Every structure is written in structure tokens, then in C-alpha cells.
Amino acid sequence: MASQLAAIVAPVFLCIAIGIGWARFGPPFDGDLITSLVYNIGVPCLIVAVFHKVEISPRALGEIALATVACYAGFFAFAYAAVRIARLDVPSYLPSLVFPLTGSMGMPVCYFAFGDVGLALAIVFFTFGAIGTFTIGEAIAAGTWSLRKLVRTPVIYAVALAVGLQLAGLRVPDWIFNTTNLLGAMVIPAQLVALGVSLLQLRIGGAARSAALALFRLGMGAGVGFAVAELFGLDGAARAVVVLQSAMPVAVSSYLFAQQYRRKPEEVAGMVVVSTAVSVVTLPLLLLALL
Amino acid sequence: MILKILSVIAPVFVCAGIGFLWGRAGRPFDTRMVGTLALNIGMPCLAFSTLTSLKVSPEAFGTMAGAYGLALIGFLAVGLVVITELRLPAHTYLPVFTSSNTGNMGLPLCLFAFGPEGLALGIGIFVMSSLFSFTVGWSIYAGRFAADVFYNNPLIYAVIAALAFMIPGVEPPAWLANTTKLMGGLAIPLMIISLGVAIANMRAQGAVTIIGISVVKLLAGFGVGYGLSLALGLEGAARGVLIIECSMPVAVHNYMFAQRFGRNASDTASMILISTVIALALLPALMLVVL
Description:
The complex is a heterodimer of chains A (about 290) and B (about 290). Chain A is mostly helical. Helix content of chain A is about 85%, strand content about 0%. The interface of A and B includes residues 6, 14 and 178 of A.
């Protein structure tokens, strides 16, 4: 069991550690270049390649999509209540509590735990998160509403294409698969290294409050995940993916928005660092409960 | 056959094309950072992960490295004849014959033409090629012998570690296998994208000598590879991989070396650009020979 857990979590934390080491000793790290390569090229390719490799029934796809929406509704309700009860500023704290790190951390964990099927299901969860982050998340932080970022996100089109092909029972030709598989392979390691680098570069503030909120994100996420999985009667990989993705730490994208719109970036940074660090312990425990 | 060839060469064209457009659009691309990520982190992980998946025996791996060692002697001989005939200085024109794009262009071709076995065999050649470029090639540019670059190359240590698993025929623990597989995904896409960016930023001067040297290099490479594969009685993937790798164009790092040691960098850039364009154009024909 220990070696099985190590096989799932070690790749994630070792890649993050490489990023931390890089920030400490390596040459300057151009995070914008990596983000641009990953989000504009890598992720759309990964989505097309993964959905080529797996076969998921329309019913299973619909189920995980609905469960994901239910999870986000749950995160939203609990996080809003918590922020209000604690009399905190909604635009600063709500997005970081709602949107977990489903991409760089959730995808590899689900992949190593359940193979390509796990990754495909994790991608569905990730996609709703990405849509939510670029619409609702940003709208909360910015205070204004805009769909411009969403329609310019290539991820949306890749998912539409991949899911469409999957539902139609079609497969892309080999040359497209080889190309997208190659380009998609850089997504997860590049994101994890970038995460490690940014963990060391974040300027952290408000230690006690951000630590408490970080723990709330992890606990609330796991609770909502388990409840939704129970409600939808999910089992196997689908149940585990919903719970794991729900219980991921605070997303770095929340920090970027906080920085951009001056919504207490130091405290959000603290939440990112604390929740990521704590997940080193809680993630194996969660896997132990799920596998 | 056409579809098979397309599935082998399309990934190279698409990835290099992405890099080329990126470079032409003038978007920032930190070559040093991407190079470190691809060559110092991704490549050692890819080599370790591919070799320890035990698709090839240590003997087959050694045979490829040895065969390429013989090929390098042939390239040196051709190079010496050419530069003596044309009375050109060795420090700029000799390494052009011996340092080829065996990694960024050769490895994806080996992978998609012959699967993981082809990649493992290609890595045998790439290791030999890197060792040679970073010791002999480097020393020719520098004008003095330098071997420290050899010890600083993490690829060597990754191969030694891989051999420690390959020789007794044991698989590495799952956590290590998963981590290196994940990180190895960075190497090839980042290398080919970088190749595209480098090409986009180079200018060629079409002097007859330069074009001639580029053509002779490519023809001699193919001839030596083809001849050696016959002489050594290689078949299947081993034959194909040797011919592909020997036919690769002038390595991009020659330009960095030429710049660093104050050699004729603009001629080097011209030879890289011309040989790469010709090699890309001839890839379908090369695939017809090896597949």
C-alpha cells in the first residue's frame, strides 16, 4: 500500500520540489512563457490525446459533469457562508476557497491512481473549474463581468472537440494523436515545476488567517466531494476523482487574480502555500481512504 | 504508407512550426530556461524512464552507441577532407559534420517510427552524440581540450543509473518510474519548439560553399548511416534508427558554441538553417527508406 501511495503522490511532490530548487538555484524562470505554452498549446493537446486513448460512455461523462457542477455549487455555498460569518472581504477570499488546484495537481494524482480513465475524468472536473475561474472567479475578483477571457481560452474548444468525437464514437487520425500526445505530455510536469517556482516566489502575509482558510478549503473540499459522490451514487474511479479534485489545495490562479485586482494577494499567497504544504500529508490519507 | 509516414513526421513539423511562428511573432522565448528545463531536467528523466522500461537490452543499447561512434569517425573523416580541400578553418567548419540534431529532431522520429523501442535505441545514439559534441566538438570550437562539460551533463548520470537497473534486468520502484516518466514528457516537445524558435531567428546567406557543405554533410550522414547498417548487419528498428540519426541536420548548439568562442557564427547559422530545411524537405523520402 505504501509503495502504491508513493507511486501516486511522489511524482507530484518531486516535480514541485524541482521547481522549488529551481527558484532557489536555477536561472530566471519565465513563468509567463510556461503558462502560455501550457494553456494555449499543451492543455488543448492533452485533452484531445487523452480522450483518444479512453472510452467513456456518454452516461459516465454526463454523470461526472453533473457531479462536478454539484461540487462547485457546494464549494460556493459553504465558502460564501464561511466568508460572511468570519466577516471577511468576499472578492478577496471567495474565489480562492471555491476553485481548487485541479490542473497541475489534480490531473497527475488522478492519472497515477486510475490511469488514462482517471485523467479523462479529472479533465472534465478541471474544465468546469477553468470555465468557472475565468468567468465567475474573475468576475468576483474584478467586480465586473466579462466573457472575453472565456471565449479566448483554447481549452473550451479542445474539450468540445474531444467530447464531441467521444460521443460520436470517432477517433482522430494517428498523426494528430502522435502530435497532441507529444505536446500534451509537457503540461503536467511544466505546471508542477512552475507551481514549485511560484511557491518560493510568493510574498506571504497574514499567516494565521490564511492558514485557517487553507485548512478550511481542504476540509470543506473533501467533505463536499464525499457528499456529492454519495448523492450521485458514484463508485470506483469516478468517486475517487470527484473527491480528490474537490479536496485539492488553493489554486495559484486565484493568487494571480488577487494580484491583478489588488485583492490581498499576500494572504491568498499564504493560503496557496499552506494548503499545498498540508496536502503533502492529507493527500496520501485521502488516497488511503479512497483506494 | 503515406499515413504511416505522416504519423511519424507530422509531430516534428507541427512542433517546430509552433516554435517557428512563436519566434517570428517576436513573442519572448527564454531559450536558456527552456533549454535547462528540456535538457537538464526532462532529457535525463526521459532517458532513465525509457531505458528502464526494459524495451531494449543493454547490448542493443551499447550496439547503437558503438555504431554511432563509428559513424562519428566517418563524419570526421568526411569533414577533414572537405575543409582541407576548401582550405577552411576547422574551428568553424569541422563540428558542423559531427554535431547533428540527434535529440530535438532525431528522437521524435525514432519514437514515432519504431515506438518506445526506437526511442530507447535513439537515446543510445543521442548519448554518444552529446558526449562527442560536448567534449570533442566543444574543444574544436574552444581551441583547447575541455572535458568538464562532460561531467556537468546530467544525462551521463541518468544513463549510468538506468544501466544499474538494465543490466540485472530489474524495474525501478513505481514512484521513481512514474516521476521520471512524467518529467521526461518535457524533453521532446520543448526541444522541438526551441528548434523552431532558433530557426526563426536565424538568417541564411546562400553562398555556394555554405550550401555545398550543408548538402555534403547531409549526404555523407545518410551514406555513412546506410553503409554502417549494412556492414553491421542491423535490421528493423536498429537499422532505421541508425539511418535516421545519421541523416540529421547540423545541430543548433553549434551556433551557441560558435558565438561563445568568437568563431564564424553567421556561417554556422546559415549551415544550420540550410541543412535543417533540406532535411525537413527530405524527411518523407528518408522514412520511405527506413520504414
